[in-house]
Amino acid sequence: MSEAWDALRKKARSTENSIDVKLVSLNKLTGNSHVSGGFDIDEKTVSSRQTSFRTMSTEIEGLIEQLTNINKDMKDIAGAQSSASWANNPAIQHTIRRHEEILRDYGSEFRKARDNVNQVLQRELLLSSSNENRSPAVNNRARGYDMFLKENDHINSCDRLLDEQLEMAMSTKENVARQGINLRGISTRLHYISKKYPAINNLMQKIKTKKQKNTLIFGGRHLLLPHFHHFLDH
């Protein structure tokens, strides 16, 4: 196997692991959110979390771009060395497809996490003023706005679930399409073999003819048997 291919594959796995770790850290930014009911959010804390959010988002975007380039290089190497036995191995093509699927999954997960965290941080920023600087009317408006944001969160969660279901449906459709291509390939190979080897073709024709005869005999017997019994009874 090509050393360049092997090195790229290891680099792809390492980059995927880095993206996974970064995504976990990104999602943790909402784990300690104080917007669940209170309004005692420290503005400095919110600012610090926003800085972390921007830094992590930039890092993940860079890693995703890096993984995209690695996958492209892997595909290019396999294509350039298509005459080599290792490049024609089905496992190589499976590996390429698998890394592309992982890249798509990470890209989708990152966009969802980024939007969710950004929404939470924006909400915290709006509610970061202390209670001392607010009149009761302002507090009431803030609570009403908070309820509106929570309802909006529920709607966004439903949207994310729908997106996931659509992605699963598209994946299933692609798998079915690939299976159809494989079945057509098998049919083509069988046709080629029957043409190339007349003996096999003759045998297949005899089997087909025998099956048709058996079907006719079986059907005729069931058709005539009641009449025969009726004749014997009389």
Automatic annotation (TrEMBL):
Record's bilayer topology term: Single-pass type IV membrane protein
GO biological process: endoplasmic reticulum to Golgi vesicle-mediated transport; inter-Golgi cisterna vesicle-mediated transport; protein transport; vesicle fusion
GO cellular component: cis-Golgi network; Golgi medial cisterna; Golgi membrane; SNARE complex
Pfam families per UniProt: V-SNARE_C
GO MF annotations, alphabetized: SNAP receptor activity
Superkingdom, natural source: Eukaryota
Residue runs in coiled coils: none
Subcellular location: Golgi apparatus membrane
InterPro entries: Golgi_SNAP_su1 (IPR023601)
UniProt keyword annotations, A-Z: Golgi apparatus, Membrane, Protein transport, Transmembrane, Transmembrane helix, Transport
Family (UniProt): Belongs to the GOSR1 family.
Protein name: Golgi SNAP receptor complex member 1
Organism: Caenorhabditis tropicalis
